[in-house]
């Protein structure tokens, strides 16, 4: 009986109940009861059933987990068991099972890599049995990319092979570059990482499309923030007949009675087997030459690039004018031959360079220029300059003829300079350019001084103009006469005439002073401010103070025996004197004070 439910009955002395325990039977109470008819009592016995069950194991709800290469991974084996666990183990499924040395529920993998990808199993064992769960780990990493080449005669195909996780890829356009990584052109991808090389007339048949071909593939996985596009490349070692690069000179130069050279750059894979110099019907100059591997410049698909080539230099002695003629150089290898024509001319001095622009600064000048024909030999350019007031020319070499920009440093600000240029080679010097006159810029200090001077002078001139205008209108006349009236009273008291404070009027003042003395002797009324009104030399708007304190001064008027006026300096002081005796001189001092602001 379980939970008051009778499971089985038997009227015999033996009762056997058989069943297969289930999980829900665990810890259930089972009771066996007997009832005697004679004794009229019940006997029972109860037992509790303990069911030993296998463990329940779970790792993850998702059976597949993805992780980027280099990250840390932790797996947890979550299990339950109603009795003691005898064993817990992790396994990784390879082609052959491999047991991991791990006994804890946690499996930790530091900095996981692509070799750690696969299926992981956790197994738990107790007395009732074993249970397990598994999870598949996918390690994501950028692809490795390489390029393969297929030549099927007319078609030449390049394949961009990528291997990464996940294995879904994006391909970008192809790049065609020279041996020195100079970009030649871009080529479209068909979306699957394949490229069929087009046959371009005038290009493929000349240089045979030799060079690096580069593809880029991505599965959108990047490590440490790096670019997810991974590069793969292939060097196409095309072979064919030799060809001359586009930057060879068809016109070359030499000097009579000296050794000269015929120089050509070319590309040949395989190496040339023979070369010939043809002068009309004559074949010569094959014994005196140099041939070496060279980094040559060429124009490929309208791009100027450096390619791996060779330079052939053929030496010759120019004996007379007849050696200045046309020559044909013929190169041959096992695929064919190529010709190049050279016209040898007599060399000359270089042409005069041209000054394009001069930009003056405070302490330097920027000179922009361009070179002209070099006369057949390498040329150097020289810049000359001097101050306008100095005859000696300074000179500096152009730093880099290819830049066409140079600086003249160490100049004096606000100074005029003359600048000219010329070129030279082994044949001689060119003519000078026209002399350019420039002026360096003044320093900021001079500009500030000029500005300060203007700030001080302009208000002063404006103030004087306003005062003069007011005076002309008569607005200052009354004030002027009041100032002079005090002066008139004092003059009558001491008996001397007024003297104008103007050195330029000295002679007139002396005459007026003599007249004034005569008038004083006759007791006449003299308008002593008439001269001030006439010339307006007294400072307008000032008051007058005076002193008559006797002082001991030497009387120079006695010696001159003439009545003269002593004219004071332009500081507002006027001294006048009358004859009192040989050693005693009385004089007055007038001072003009500024008028208080109204």
TrEMBL record:
Gene Ontology biological process terms, A to Z: cell-cell adhesion
One annotated GO molecular function: cell adhesion molecule binding
GO CC, alphabetical: cell-cell junction; plasma membrane
Keywords from the named record: Disulfide bond, Glycoprotein, Immunoglobulin domain, Membrane
Pfam families: Ig_3
Keyword Mitochondrion: no
Mode of membrane association: Single-pass type I membrane protein
SMART domains, alphabetized: FN3 (SM00060), IG (SM00409), IGc2 (SM00408)
Subcellular location field: Membrane
Ig-like domain span: 54-138, 143-231
Domain of life of the organism encoding this protein: Eukaryota
Domain Fibronectin type-III: 349-443
Annotated InterPro entries: Cell_adhesion_signaling, FN3_dom, FN3_sf, Ig-like_dom, Ig-like_dom_sf, Ig-like_fold, Ig_sub, Ig_sub2
Name of the protein in its database record: DSCAM
Organism classification: Eukaryota, Metazoa, Spiralia, Lophotrochozoa, Mollusca
